[in-house]
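User: Hey, my collaborator sent me this sequence without any context and asked if I could get a structure. I don't really work with proteins. Can you help?
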Amino acid sequence: MSKFVYPLPISPNFRKPTSVEECLPQARLFVKKERGRAALGPVRRGDKILIVTYADQDEYVREAVIQALKEAGAAAVDFLFTHELTGVEQTLVSVEEAWREAEMMQQGRVSGSYTVSDRTSGVDLAAALRKYLDEHPGYTGLFWDTGGRPHRVFALKEHGGTFRGNWLFNNWEEFLSPAWTFPDELWKAMEQKILDALSLASAVRITDPEGTHLEYALTPEQAHRWAMTAGLSGHLFLDPLQSTSSENAVVPVSEKVPMIFPGYNGVLAGTANHFGFFPRMELHFADGRLVEVKGGGRYGELITELEERYHDVHWPGYPAKGFFWYCDCALCTTVKAFRRTSDLFNSYWRIPNAPERNRAGVFHMGIGSRRHTEEHRTYARENNVPMGHIHVHNYFATFEIQIQGSKNWFKIIDKGRVSALDDVDLRALATKYGDPDDLLAYDWIPPLPGINCEGDYREDYAPDPIAFLKKRIAAGLSI
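Assistant: No problem. I've predicted the 3D structure and written it out in structure-token form, which is a compact way to encode the shape of the chain:
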């Protein structure tokens, strides 16, 4: 028997394509997909499609996607680089710079900010893209950015109806992943099992081996509203404040309806965010608000500076003062997603560590604010306060709910494993598409010493995750 109670590290190994023909089968699958962040369908005959991409766009991927879309009926497919829109050349970034996520917040350039920027390039593309669409009418479909789909629609304003989804495939490694060709029917069924459970909750508890321990209670009415508003395909909102914000609008949410403010108490701990890795950090919460920061290196220092600078902020509609609220407990549901290695240390994605958060069972938890109504944005402008939120990732979290009217707890996520993946009905459905043992297995599990691989977490990883990852890379081990 293994001495570890968490699953051992694994990772996929893809070979870079050397021709358009190698990429065509995958491109044709994306064109057929109609669900999730990678879907390029449905394609309507005569569509004129614009794809906004980055400086390292793989040429074989690009040509294969153009061919597949045209085979499906598109009349024209254009690729446009971000620097062509703005005149600003992109620079390479690395996961060694995780602190930049807090720095971006200081500059007002994070998701949901009133200066809406492209999540991946870090450049404010919204205005330039609207201008481009004004000057080049006729596009019926637009694929842009790597996340924040509701935000992209909002940022495009009168062109919001053109937006169809994100563009993840400038990178060949991401393009080749089976993550994005997972059967839609199976994906939807898995997510529905998670959403159905939320409506039964009277309390929530989140724990993980890096030190996270958070709890809060819910009323039956709050649990019902949460379950009704949490279902963004591929990116479930497992935080009631996040799901009931009009900012996200999975279902129509009136700005007059109060958001749910769960009274989170406890600690959020971790060593990673969308931008990269940092020394272990603890964020302490009382009644949903950040009250103390411990560790985190420069990332922790910048969070502390922001909290001290804006501690008297009182967001419209919020129950009390406070700049940092626990406002994001997002569960992506892409079973086969993984941590990319091809551009981890030299990426044109401003958020080079974001791909890892896509894997089912990995939580990205955020602190900041939600709502982003006109009243919220006006308050931010008038008081010169940055909007949005920043993150901490958890890999092996257990997310459990107490069932209403009982003392029983149900684990929606158990040590990083989505419980629905082991549901007998889901496994039976999976047989339509292949072997359930293969189809419902993770292709990537990260190494954490002392937790699921040799070493001591506090000594070998927590102080310097980057050094640990580089050491494994040098040794030819998976990360």
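In plain terms: Residues 110-116 have pLDDT under 50 and may be disordered. You can pass these tokens on to your collaborator as they are.
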